[in-house]
Amino acid sequence: MLKFEQVSKQYSNGYQAVKNMNFEISAGEILVLIGPSGCGKTTTMKMINRLVPHTSGTIFLKGKDITKENPDLLRRNIGYVIQQIGLFPHYTIEDNVGLIPQLKGWDAARKKERVNEMLRLVGLDPAVFAKRYPKQLSGGQQQRVGVARALAADPEIVLMDEPFGALDPITREQLQDELLRLQQELHKTIVFVTHDMEEALKLGDKIAILKDGELVQLDTPDQILSQP
Ligand code: ADP
Ligand code: ADP
C-alpha cells in the first residue's frame, strides 16, 4: 500500500532531516513512527501527502509514484490528523467533517449521511454536535471530530501526527481504544507518529524507530518486547 525506497529530505537550508529511508506497509496495517523530537517523524509524514516534497528516492502509494499525481487530488485520498486539531473555527462540526466530501463534489444528501455516520463512529451524536462550532467542544471531542474528518471521504491511507498528544491521559486512552476499534471495522492503512513507546506498542502493527533522520529499526511490538 505504501512504500518508501531510499527516500531522503534535505531542507533548503541544507539540513538533512530524513536519510535513505526504506519501508513498506500493507493495506490495513498501522505503522507507528517513533523517536525523539527532531528525528524526522513529521517530515516523513508530510512527504507522504507532499506537504513536504522529498529530495530523492521514491514514494509509492498503491504502486504509483506520488510525484506523478496531482498533489490536491492526492491529499483528498489521504486523511490527515494533527495534534493541534486544525478544525476550521468558523465552520460547524458538520461542515468541518464534510470538507473533503464537499471538495469531491458529493451531493448534499450523501454528504450529510456520511457526516452523521462518521460522527457516530467516533462517539459523537450528530443531533447534539453537528451544528456546533469547534470552540463549543472539549479538546477530546474536537480530536474525535478531527478523526471523523480524516475518515469522511474514505481515504486510502490516514496520517496521524501525535493526534492524542495534547489530551489528558484518560481521554487519550479512550481515543486509542477507539482508534483500534475503528481500525478493526474499517481496515484503514494508518501511519501514526508518537514519541510515546507505550502508545506505539499498543497501536502499532509495525514500529519504525527513527534516530537523526534514519530508520534504525523496524519491528513488530512482539519483536520489540522480546528484545533482551
Ligand atoms: P523549505 O526549506 O522546505 O523550503 P521553509 O524553509 O520554507 O521550508 O520552511 C517551511 C516552514 O518550516 C516554515 O514555517 C518555517 O518557519 C519552518 N522551519 C524552518 N526551519 C525550521 C527548522 N529548523 N525546524 C522547524 N521548522 C522550521
Ligand atoms: P520530529 O517530527 O521527529 O520532531 P521533524 O520532522 O519535525 O522532526 O524535523 C526533523 C528535523 O528537520 C529537525 O531538526 C527540524 O529542526 C528540521 N526541520 C523541520 N522542518 C524544517 C524546515 N522547514 N527547514 C529546515 N529544517 C527543518
From TrEMBL:
Top enzyme category: translocase
Location(s) in or outside the cell: Cell inner membrane
Membrane topology: Peripheral membrane protein
Catalytic activity: a quaternary ammonium(out) + ATP + H2O = a quaternary ammonium(in) + ADP + phosphate + H(+)
Every ABC transporter domain range: 2-228
UniProt keyword terms in alphabetical order: ATP-binding, CBS domain, Cell inner membrane, Cell membrane, Membrane, Nucleotide-binding, Repeat, Transport
Entry's EC annotation: 7.6.2.9
Highest taxon in the source lineage: Bacteria
GO MF, one example: ATP binding
Coiled coil, from the record: none
Similarity section: Belongs to the ABC transporter superfamily.
Quaternary structure (record): The complex is probably composed of two ATP-binding proteins, two transmembrane proteins and a solute-binding protein.
Name of the featured protein: Quaternary amine transport ATP-binding protein
